[in-house]
Amino acid sequence: MPTEAPNTLRSRARYKIVDILSEGPIKGLVNGAKSIYLDDTPVQNEDGTFNFPNFDVTRDIQEIPFPVIAGTNKPIYAGLFPNSENTVNVGVKVTKDSPEGSGGGDGSVTRTITDAGLDSVRVTLRVPALAVTNTTTGDVTGGNIQFQIYVKPNGGAFEPIAGGKKWNALSAPDAETSDGAMGIILHTLATRAANVAQSISWQYAKKNGGTWGDWVEYDSITIPATSSSSSSYGYYNQPASDLYTPAVTGLAPGTYKGRAVVSGGSVTVIKAEEYIVNMLNVNGKTVSPYDISYNVPLPEGGAPWDIKVVRLTSDNTASNVQDDLYWLSYTEIINNRFSWPNIAGMQLTFDAESFGGNVPARSYDVMGLMVQIPSNYDPYNRLYTGTWDGTFKTDWTDNPAWIFYDLLTNKRYGLGSNID
């Protein structure tokens, strides 16, 4: 008799909580998410694993007050508590290939965001059903869809929003990348004789449906035969051997290979690497629509931004497989501009179902208030270096002497206003 696996995917409600901890600013969490406790259970274990599902440190934790953008006084406002939202329907199916299942083409979906006043965009995807029926036994099990969301600022390149990025060495200099690579780097040794010009072109090709496409140049260099000047390449009129490492990233996910083409002298690619992005995925079973949302911070570079959803799992056109992926909508977000002066706190979001619909107790392990301490004092090891010059710096301390000094001299919450 056929069996059917239980449904494991449900659209989730999420709590959004602001906790005010103390006078601020404070030094902050002792050890990131490992220092946050929900119903006395740490969010993250010492080995890096999480005790609560669907928790993302970069998305779900924001310390108050907010950090500022480097080189400015402008705070980075978090997107956990938006002030203004505008939802735009998309309703387009995302496929790996175009046409679907053809083995070629690009089935990704891109939308352009033109409002320069936005802080972020929330992308909502829908899986109408995720199930695989065994055509022999009739058993129904779950499936898996891998995908990624990319964002590109004006004049920039597409970058993934999540998952982590890394370079992996290929098995041979002329080997093809794994499917899903987004870039390639060629470590190239070039040699040339004296008084001989040299031109090098670095190129990549992409495989489409088992066939390699045209070679595309992504970097090049030309060295003249003679010159009275010198540069990082040495004197041009001397024989030389140089190592180059040109890289290209931001390519559409796929299978690639690279080469170096030379005129004048010779080149040898001694090592090649692929640029891999760990992907987002939906894994489980559902026979009813499952919606999932991702917050997309809008990077520096300004409007317009392009946001692209790419399916990485192969298209399934068989009638026994249900794993369609749709870009349902996106929501343009302007965040609240709360400044939280002199306040230390936390903004958290997490799945409500992890706590049976109840709001959990929250606790935090933090290093507290930042105070004035001597400039030559190390508060973490309680050591003084050299002779104190009478100046102060602001940092955390648990030294009772400098905590008492702060209570005596602070003009807002201490006795400083009453002391000359």
Give an account of the 3D structure.
With 420 residues, the protein is mostly beta strands. Helices cover 3% and strands 46% of the residues. It contains two helices and 34 strands. It has helices spanning 57-60, 400-409, and strands spanning 14-23, 26-29, 36-38, 41-42, 61-64, 82-93, 109-113, 120-127, 131-133, 140-141, 143-152, 159-160, 165-169, 184-192, 198-208, 211-212, 216-223, 230-231, 234-235, 240-244, 247-248, 256-263, 266-277, 280-284, 290-297, 305-311, 321-322, 326-335, 343-351, 362-364, 366-374, 377-378, 383-384, 392-396. Strands 7, 11, 12, 24 and 26 form a five-stranded antiparallel sheet that branches. Strands 13, 14, 20, 21 and 23 form a five-stranded antiparallel sheet that branches. Strand 32 and strand 33 (383-384) form a beta hairpin. The longest helix is centred in the C-terminal third of the chain and has 10 residues, at 400-409. It is globular, with a radius of gyration of 28 Å. The protein starts with 13 loop residues before the first strand and ends in an 11-residue tail after the last helix. The model is unreliable at 69-78 and 228-236 (pLDDT under 50).
